[in-house]
Design brief:
Elements lengths: L6 H19 L5 H27 L1
Length: 58
């Protein structure tokens, strides 16, 4: 098996996917958990988005 992603990227991706899935599952009954999971997903994706934006302008 060829590993394309390093450990940090794999952990980030799995964490983001878990936040997204749990937020989707808690959308109706647990509004507080749903909001916090959404904030967690947004904050985990923010540094990656900033890096892509900076790289696009360099």
């Amino acid at each position: 098996m060829i590993r394309v992603w390093d450990l940090v990227v794999r952990l980030f991706h799995r964490g983001l996917a878990a936040c997204f899935a749990l937020a989707w599952l808690t959308a109706e009954e647990a509004q507080g958990a749903h909001e916090w999971l959404g904030y967690g997903a947004a904050m985990s994706a923010f540094p990656a988005g900033v890096k892509v934006w900076i790289a696009a302008w360099l």
